[in-house]
Design brief:
This protein has helices spanning 12-21, 33-61, 67-92, 109-119, 169-187, 194-210, 215-237, 240-243, 261-268, 328-346, 353-370, 412-421, 432-439, 443-463, 466-483, 491-501, 510-526; strands at residues 6-8, 27-29, 127-130, 134-139, 143-150, 153-160, 270-279, 282-292, 299-308, 314-321, 324-325, 402-403, 409-410. It is α+β, with helices and mostly antiparallel strands. The strands form four sheets. Strands 7-8-9-10-11 form a five-stranded antiparallel sheet, covered by helices on one side. A four-stranded antiparallel sheet has the order 3-4-5-6, with helices on one face. It has a two-stranded parallel ribbon with strand order 1-2. Helix 5 (169-187) packs antiparallel against helix 6 (194-210) and helix 15 packs across helix 17. The N and C termini lie far apart (118 Å).
């Protein structure tokens, strides 16, 4: 035989008694506020904890910081309000094991029925009937319930439910439990007080009243809750800071110190987006945005890939334009344009690292040129570099000017050396001594290089083909970039690079190549280039 039942009202004593049995078996739970909270929290405690942990971990992983606690609490709240009704249905339903509820000692069923009839009052129950072993409670709005006298004690069952909606199942379970509470309070007044009975009645009326709302209102409330949840979750899970692992809110030395990376990029690009991914154990953050191509004027998509370091810092790994990886010069030019654009838009003096490096290089070239002695204009010294297969020369003088037939200063001897050296080194393998040699000429090197490039491109287009001339042009640009450490990011050199970026020599016909050769020649002439004789 089952043990005699106990009442669970959410009090400290009830919780202690429940703790001994480890569950609510053998207890009749009241639908009071304290009991409801205790039952729902106890029934969902594992899921609430998991939801909170998931929220915190997600927040931390996305760089949300302290907001991760709020996300955890929000997920826990969604679980609580979303699943507590399922707990109510299970705990308050007639199938819940309440233990044995016998009639008071010495009381017959007929006496119990008489006492219940005289003491029972519920405005939601219109009629009560009885038989030799059962009492039936009728409610138009709540359904039909039966209290039956069995060998295992009094049992409450649900005979009919007005609604077949599954979401209202727990309402009828709770109502049957409250009816049983009223019966127990009549037969065992020392177990359930009149105040507790009235509190249960009020809670049930409120519960059913909430479910009387029209479907449209319920949908509106649900939509409002979802919108609020999205409003709370979006900044945590989908903000630029979260998707960029903090890069968007960080700072780069190549950008103005006053602005974050995200502010600078979004000022320059349209439709900017962030994402991150793992590759070989390294985290990369990718920014993609749209801008007008300086080559064609058409819309181009630029991608910037940041690499996250173990110490929390980050750096630019590479940049792309329409899927094609930029070379270092093009990348530096683009970063300079982005930074300068932000400075111009916000009235900030340009002070990014690219400008500083460029100015430093210009100063170095100027110093190198001005430091050359002018006491012996015809003096030249050469030394053989025995470490190089190409016998690179180191210069101590840059005075090699001759006078051309049109009376203008030219640099035929230095231009001739450049023309030879363009073919002397594999790309990326120019010795430092060779770079120092050419840079020691200061601005004269750039003039001689332009003359050499112009002469060769012009002659190659006539002797060979436009494609050969264009290939020669590319070799010259690579040579200049390497000799000057890729730091010429403005003016004529940049304009020549723009021509290079505008074509793919692998797909050009000779006729198409002629168009670009003409552009190169015209640009060289516009900058004072002369045909050289070596």
């Amino acid at each position: 035989m089952k043990e005699r039942f106990e009442i669970y009202d959410g009090s400290a004593e009830a919780k202690k008694a429940k703790g001994k049995s480890k569950n609510l078996s053998g207890f009749h739970p009241l639908f009071t506020a304290a009991a409801r909270r205790s039952i729902a929290l106890d029934g969902l405690k594992i899921w609430l904890l998991l939801g909170f942990i998931v929220g915190v971990v997600t927040g931390v992983a996305t760089g949300a910081g302290a907001v991760s606690i709020l996300l955890g609490l929000l997920i826990a709240a969604v679980i609580y309000f979303g699943f507590r009704d399922d707990v109510y249905k299970k705990v308050y339903g007639p199938e819940h094991d309440r233990g044995q509820l016998p009639l008071p000692e010495g009381m017959s069923w007929e006496e119990a029925v008489d006492r219940i009839r005289r003491g029972f009052a519920n405005p939601d129950v219109e009629q009560v009937t009885d038989t030799a072993d059962a009492m039936t409670f009728y409610s138009k709005k709540r359904g039909t319930y039966q209290l039956k006298n069995t060998a295992d004690g009094l049992k409450m069952t649900i005979l009919t439910k007005p609604s077949k909606s599954s979401k209202k199942e727990y309402l009828y379970a709770v109502f049957s439990s409250v009816l049983l509470s009223q019966v127990i309070a009549i037969l065992y007044p020392e177990k359930i007080s009149a105040e507790q009975v009235e509190e249960e009645k009020a809670a049930v009326r409120k519960l059913f009243g909430a479910h009387k709302m029209p479907l449209l209102i319920e949908l509106a409330i649900t939509a409002a809750f979802v919108a609020f949840a999205v409003y709370m979750l979006y900044p945590v899970l989908y903000s630029d800071n979260a998707r960029s692992k903090g890069v968007s809110d960080g700072y780069l030395s190549v950008f103005p110190a006053e602005a974050t990376v995200g502010e600078v990029l979004d000022d320059f690009f349209a439709n900017g987006t962030w994402e991150n991914y793992e590759q070989d154990g390294v985290t990369f953050v990718h920014y993609s945005g749209e801008c007008a191509s300086t080559q064609t004027g058409e819309k181009a998509t630029v991608g910037i890939y940041f690499k996250l370091n173990d110490d929390g810092s980050f750096e630019i790994d590479r940049m792309t334009m329409d899927g094609e990886t930029m070379n270092l010069l093009r990348q530096n030019i683009t970063l300079s344009e982005i930074s300068n654009s932000y400075c111009n838009d916000h009235g900030i003096a340009s002070s990014n690292a690219l400008d500083e490096l460029e100015n430093a290089l210009d100063d170095a070239l100027a110093d190198s040129s001005s430091s050359v002695s002018m006491a012996e204009p015809e003096s030249e010294t050469y030394t053989e570099d025995t470490d190089s297969d190409n016998s690179a020369q180191t210069a101590t003088r840059s005075d090699r000017k001759v006078v051309s037939t049109n009376g203008m200063d030219t640099y035929s001897e230095l231009s001739g050396e450049i023309s030879v050296d363009v073919n002397s080194y594999e790309f990326g393998e120019m010795p430092e001594s060779t770079k120092e040699y050419y840079l020691s000429y200061g601005s004269d090197f750039k003039t001689a290089w332009l003359n050499a490039m112009y002469t060769d491109v012009y002659e190659y287009s006539g002797k060979y083909s436009n494609l050969d001339a264009l290939s020669r042009f590319i070799e010259y640009l690579k040579f200049y970039d390497e000799a000057t450490y890729y730091m010429e990011v403005e003016g004529m050199i940049q304009d020549l690079h723009e021509i290079w970026y505008d074509f793919d020599i692998e797909t050009l016909t000779d006729e198409d190549a002629g168009v670009y050769v003409d552009r190169v020649i015209q640009m060289a002439e516009a900058n004072g280039a002369e045909i050289q004789t070596w």
